[in-house]
Amino acid sequence: MQAVIDILSWIFIIGGSFFAIVGAVGLVRFPDFWSRLHAVSVTDSAGVILLIVGMALQAGLTLVTVKLLLILAFLFITGPTSTHAVANAALVSGLKPRSSVDRDDADAATQDDKAGPT
Amino acid sequence: MFILAVIALFIAMVLVLIRLFVGPSLYDRVLALNSFGTHTVLFIGVVGFLNGRPDFLDIALLYALINFVGTIAILKFFRYRAIGDVRRDTAETDG
User: Fold this and answer.
1) Within an 8 Å CB–CB cutoff, is residue B8 touching chain A?
2) Which of A11, A14, A5 has the alpha carbon at shortest distance from A57?
């Protein structure tokens, strides 16, 4: 039984670290700010959950698992909130997403040049 | 096997740092900082488990708290040019 739990926790931990790398690579390679939001949320959701559940399996039913679940619960609350706060702040400050649907190209070109404070 | 997770998280943190330095706009940097904080929380947890000292998780929990507060503070500063009491005139210039 212990071997099964060990193997299961290794699978979770490897999966979690894999998604952490996937999110980081996405954060580097995605073209603009708005698509990077998705990359960050990949690490915030999949990476965090898999790694913490993997560690919780490794620790078994002890106080450590309670702390791990506390961290998981807290990251659940703050992850999306902070990502939303960043996105809202960016949108308000004029960093417009490149949507060619609701504006014509002439306006799009000028708006993108002066978008976002450097 | 925890070594694998430590190395993977280290690579992820280096990549996030690249985005932190390269990031064209301010908000890319804030996003990278936030992601770096989350990676640090995981890194502290995994290193704690690696050394057989699970009481590192208190540090990881604290770091998660501070990271969130820091992100919101940075955003508020760049929005209102002040973290403390927001003066009426700056608050009115909402986008």
Assistant:
1) yes
2) A5
